[in-house]
């Protein structure tokens, strides 16, 4: 299955599964240092935003440096107190835009790179790698959401 088809399938299945999660379960935390379901969904929103930026900027700028501090992003955006349905809609729309963007990337452009190093020497990743890795990351966290 093409990565974008897989993302669409994950969106559709997740939207159904999200509706079965009681509202109080979205904010429950096992400990102060473990993300709630709402914060985990916020992390997936941040991942979509940052990867969308990587997929776009890498096509016109040589090896852009695009990284983010996931803990800071989740905390600073206060996902824990956000409206759950708004977060679900934002996650859905960002992923649909990501799919549209990735579908327009040519095979040749998939070889372009992005620097994802948080510090030190550059870590150049091809767009092909980043798209595949995005799907793996998305699946991993969606599984966590379903079983937390």
TrEMBL record:
InterPro entries with a match to the protein in the record: DinB-like, DinB/YfiT-like
Transmembrane segment boundaries: none
Positions of the DinB-like domain: 12-145
A Pfam family per the record: DinB_2
SUPFAM superfamilies: DinB/YfiT-like putative metalloenzymes
Protein name: DinB superfamily protein
Organism from which the protein derives: Catalinimonas alkaloidigena
Lineage: Bacteria, Pseudomonadati, Bacteroidota, Cytophagia, Cytophagales
């Amino acid at each position: 299955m093409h990565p974008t088809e897989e993302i669409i399938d994950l969106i559709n299945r997740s939207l159904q599964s999200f509706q079965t999660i009681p509202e109080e379960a979205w904010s429950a935390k096992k400990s102060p240092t473990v993300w709630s379901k709402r914060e985990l969904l916020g992390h997936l929103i941040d991942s979509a935003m940052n990867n969308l930026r990587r997929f776009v900027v890498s096509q016109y700028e040589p090896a852009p440096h695009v990284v983010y501090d996931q803990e800071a992003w989740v905390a600073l955006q206060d996902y824990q107190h956000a409206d759950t349905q708004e977060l679900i809609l934002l996650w859905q729309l960002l992923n649909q835009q990501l799919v549209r963007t990735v579908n327009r990337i040519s095979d040749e452009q998939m070889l372009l790179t992005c620097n994802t190093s948080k510090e030190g020497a550059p870590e150049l990743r091809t767009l092909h790698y980043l798209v595949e890795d995005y799907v793996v990351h998305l699946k991993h966290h969606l599984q966590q959401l379903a079983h937390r």
